[in-house]
Design brief:
The protein is an alpha/beta fold. It is 44% helix and 14% strand. Strands 2-8-7-6-5-3-4 form a seven-stranded mixed sheet, with helices on both faces. A five-stranded mixed sheet has the order 1-11-12-10-9.
Length: 462
């Protein structure tokens, strides 16, 4: 093991240097990647020197998500204390289903849940767990909502037409989860949004009434704290009034931007969170924790047990129900995803997490201001969003994003709202500075010139 750790440290140092010198990796085409990097297996293993060379080559062609020019996804950057916690979790290799095998690591997860419950304004009877991603947090909320309405569903199955509601700008996991839960994709109602991408509560109420009149059983509303394209926050208080009127479960999918609960300045974006029945967020997004670290809490912890607990005498043997975390989680065996968040949080404190969140909004303001001050840009996003959506001159967003990626200049994605496609710059890496944001625009504009030149050459040679 000593040799492997020494090699790991060597590789990690090379990676850090490479991120500075070559922040974007030139992609290997999918039809070449397996053969080019010798990924396939053989009957015989390889010598250590060859193995090390192959590992290094593979790393050199892997996208650098912590670099200063990675703006492509809803995560990015690297918080050292969190990385340390993740590496330690691998070395310890505890599973989190029982206190007997997890020990104090179970206490760490319980402590995280208790504090998150307090931040959300939930009562003492609330609790939570860590799921393998935001999609599965949404799934767990859906299952709890389903079982709260038809209490024998875990045993008898779904035997009525149940309907659920989410905005048309919500995460794609919602209809997938409807299929998983036996509700069916056809019973998902996609509610209209306003020009900011926020759910239209009048349309929500009307749609619920229409379904009731048709003999359906409405049971679940998914609100979003940070839509995937525009970064919009649904009006939780207004949606709650509709849910209360019709007795529906209200879940807040805060996978992207639910981390605002750690910021006094921006927590108002989720006003009314305490009125919801469940809430989830990804610490691996706004809070810079390595993938995956997805947290879901339920206002009444009994629903976690009712929907996800199952007797297993061979497993639960210490009579420590509160610390046998497998009784309220989706999985049985699961890796310790709490430790990396705890090592970060314990190191920098509540104030440190708040600074991480505030920095992302600050960077978003820098980017919006730059776009507003340059007439060649068109801005589509709005204040209080860390998704900066824009177009430049008459250049198609997908073409410029693809060129920057293929030529290893920058990684940035594109999205669409209604009928408009645009570049989507995500300022979620709190390690970035104003200089880094302005440098991105310099790289972007240089890429735009190259694309224009390519187009003119192709027209002239046609």
């Amino acid at each position: 093991m000593d040799e492997e750790l020494e090699f790991f440290n060597e590789i990690a140092q090379k990676l850090l240097i490479s991120e500075q010198k070559n922040p974007v990796v030139k992609p290997v085409p999918t039809h070449q990647v397996i053969d080019e990097l010798d990924i396939n297996f053989k009957d015989q293993g390889i010598e250590d020197d060859e193995w090390k060379e192959l590992i290094e080559k593979m790393i050199n062609f892997t996208p650098k998500t912590a670099s200063k020019l990675f703006f492509n996804q809803l995560f990015g950057g690297r918080q050292p204390k969190a990385v340390f916690g993740d590496l330690l979790a691998v070395m310890l290799n505890n599973s989190m289903y029982t206190y007997k095998v997890a020990g104090p690591q179970a206490g760490i997860e319980k402590t995280i849940m208790k504090k998150v419950v307090q931040l959300a304004g939930y009562p003492d009877l609330a609790d939570g767990t860590i799921a393998p991603g935001g999609s599965m947090c949404n799934f767990m909320a859906l299952v709890m909502a389903r079982d709260s309405v038809v209490k024998d569903t875990p045993n008898a199955g779904v035997n009525s037409k149940m309907t659920m509601y989410t905005s048309k700008e919500s995460h794609y996991s919602i209809p997938k989860n409807a299929a998983f839960a036996g509700i069916g994709r056809d019973q998902v109602r996609f509610i209209k949004t306003n020009k900011k991408g926020e759910m239209d509560t009048n349309h929500l109420n009307d749609t619920i009434l229409e379904d009731k009149n048709q003999g359906y059983t409405p049971f679940f509303v998914n609100a979003t704290a940070g839509t995937t394209v525009l970064g919009a926050f649904d009006d939780i208080e207004a949606i709650h009034h509709v849910c209360k009127k019709h007795n529906l479960w209200l879940h807040i999918d805060g996978a992207y931007c639910g981390g605002v609960i750690f910021s006094k300045k921006y927590k108002s974006l989720v006003n009314g969170i305490e009125l919801s029945d469940s809430f989830s967020f990804n610490a691996h997004k706004m809070l810079g924790t390595p993938l995956n670290c997805s947290i879901i809490i339920a206002k009444d912890k009994s629903y976690l047990s009712k929907s996800f607990s199952n007797d297993a005498e061979y497993l639960y043997q210490t009579n420590t129900d509160d610390f046998d975390l497998g009784k309220t989680s989706l999985q049985c065996g699961r890796r310790n995803d709490a430790l990396k968040f705890w090592t970060l949080w314990k190191s920098i404190g509540n104030n440190g997490l708040e600074k991480l969140v505030n920095q992302q909004f600050y960077l978003a303001d820098i980017a919006r201001e730059y776009i507003k001050n340059h007439p060649d840009y068109t801005l589509y996003s709005f204040e209080n969003s860390i998704s900066i959506c824009f177009n430049y001159k008459d250049i198609p967003a997908n073409e410029i994003c693809t060129l920057l990626y293929e030529e290893a200049q920058a990684m940035v994605g594109y999205g669409k709202f209604e009928s408009t496609e645009f570049v989507r710059l995500i300022t979620i890496n709190a390690n970035n500075s104003e200089t880094d944001i302005l440098h991105f625009f310099k790289v972007f504009e240089e890429g735009a010139k190259k694309l224009k030149l390519k187009h003119s050459i192709s027209v002239n040679t046609a």
